[in-house]
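#random but structural
TW: two for the price of one
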Amino acid sequence: MREIQFREALREAMNEEMRKDDKIFLMGEEVAEYNGAYKVSQGMLDEFGPERVIDTPIAELGFAGIGVGAAMNGLRPIIEFMTFNFSLVAIDQVINSAAKMMSMSGGQFPIPMVFRGPTGNAGMLSSQHSQNFENWYANCPGLKVVVPSNPYDAKGLLKSSIRDNDPVIFMESELMYGDKGQVPEGEYLIPIGVAEVVKEGNDVTLVSFGKMMKIATAAAAEMEKEGTSVEVIDLKSVRPIDYATVVKSVQKTNRLVIVEEAWPLASISTEITYHVQKHAFDYLDAPIQRITNMDVPLPYAPTLIEAILPNVKRTIEAVNSVLYR
């Protein structure tokens, strides 16, 4: 086992899969000559050449559509958006073509492709470059939506996503590309749709995904110092959602807090809340609490960003609230 960066884990996943299957290619803005906007694809042009690592114009709708057409013709594209904020320009191809083609063609055209790139806040990037769309894409049948929280999961989940015959939305974070973690040398896959209990506990269940897992685990560690036993669950994917793991945990702890970097209305945490009240209502000893972004566009000023995003303080307050403290 060695320690590598999040970006390196993603690169290894793509390199390994592209070496095995010459139908896989990477396409997006600055992925080739510049080695990727965040250096995820560093060195890939040298190894695979310009026919398989392809720079595009700033035209997300165009190259997303090319990817869908390539997938319909038997290739397996990886489409990189420099940020998922820019995927809004391509959302017609993602939703109306990639997600629906298998159904509309009566099963004749599977779309084995991955749309990947960073999501959410990355510092002082203001309203148009700091948004979370996990719940938007998770709302659409035909897509799978994966949001890893660490380098180990990033590699295993990306390899599984590339091999999947459905279109996968693979969401990363600019603030995590430099994160380091233990990743095995050998081959491994992580199944899509299986959550992980990363820390066992008895007093309250704390659920999150993506970079918000840092908030969840930090809050759980602080609460542990005070004698509160917090069970922490990493969803890893938000379509499909592993409801069963969450419900099982709530049946043990009787309390639930969900941390999510998104606006509150129609969020992933809303969906989990519905399923828990439906399948574990009699086990709940307190109303479910959600920690989300405040319901405003993200500002530029660092002090305002801190006030609006989920943080450890707000999470601890929510945990104390369901414990009636």
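TW: number two ↓
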Amino acid sequence: MTMNFDFNNPTRILFGSGKLGELGSQAMPGKKALLLMSGGKSAKVSGAYNRTLEQLHKAGVEVAEFAKVMENPVKEMVMEGAAFARENGCDFIVALGGGAVLDSAVAIAAMATNPGDLWDYVNGGTGKGKPLSNPGLPIVTITLTAGTGSEVNCWGVISNLETKEKIGFGYPELVPVLAIVDPELMKTVPSKYTAYQGFDALFHNTEVMMSNGVNILSEAIALSAIENIAKYLPRAVKDGNDLEAREHVAYGSTMAGIAMQLTSTTAQHSMEHAMSAYHHNLPHGAGLIMISKAFAEFFIEKHACDGQFIKMARAMGMENADKPEDFITALVKLQEECGVADLKMSDYGITSDEFMDLAVNARETMGGLFLANPCPMSDEECAGIFEKSYR
């Protein structure tokens, strides 16, 4: 456990029920906002859409709406959104939605002010890794889900359908300036997606705990988040109107966004990005759930970070946990309580002959996360985790 860390988070976070009502009194980073949303109806069903427009009007901000973000955002949509922002004279972005919208905001903010194609600036895979020539548009985030933690960090995950790559994109200068995390806006998220998103938030924190870069601050934040998610996610899944449960899960998700700035996640995320790069209908959280047990068991069998697994098991409610396998017991129990223990890779078109292709793709596109693993993992071992997870 290292005592050293480097932490800089310039995002102002307004957290708590009713906080959207304070947006209009905040200093805005511009005069005309690109209001970025998904193509669905979640923002309107939750009431967040009308309330956001009211607050932006109160702040004297004009709005141009771009509502074309899909579940797994693609490069073409990013480039279209960036062109739309330029054509409409938008000088900042208001991202209103879940993880896909928040991720897209980072990429659109960059491409609205920089020449060329998004993949010119992507690091990894076929990306050219160029530095940004110009600062991106400032970003205000209003999250409607509890999952990614992207409301407070500079990273987004974008897919290139042509090359079958799903890669994290981001630069420190793209960190949002203001984040609104209002659990009241999350009450209409369907049960299934509440579970998927909640486990995404959980795994951000468990991967920080497993990471070889974990430090005294990231561990403290991650354990607090794990405890809150494990205790309250089953309640949020069972009753979406349980505001107390929504608040605690949202806290765990936002804290993950901070913990990930202090310590990287691990190859579990690289592996899922490969899965959904090839099978675009696979929700990110569902893919993570499918491989989570075998992924953790790999490191338990290697005795790579036994103490970390014990700490996580205790945070998940097993007060007397004394062996790393207790984490698996707690994880499976939580998945059962949330109704996601029986997810099948085959239901999303994944076949047993793909495992090595997925393993190679995971390393080629987001190999940096493999370096954060607590011990080395070969392509063959990575493919073995897919095989062990397969149903």
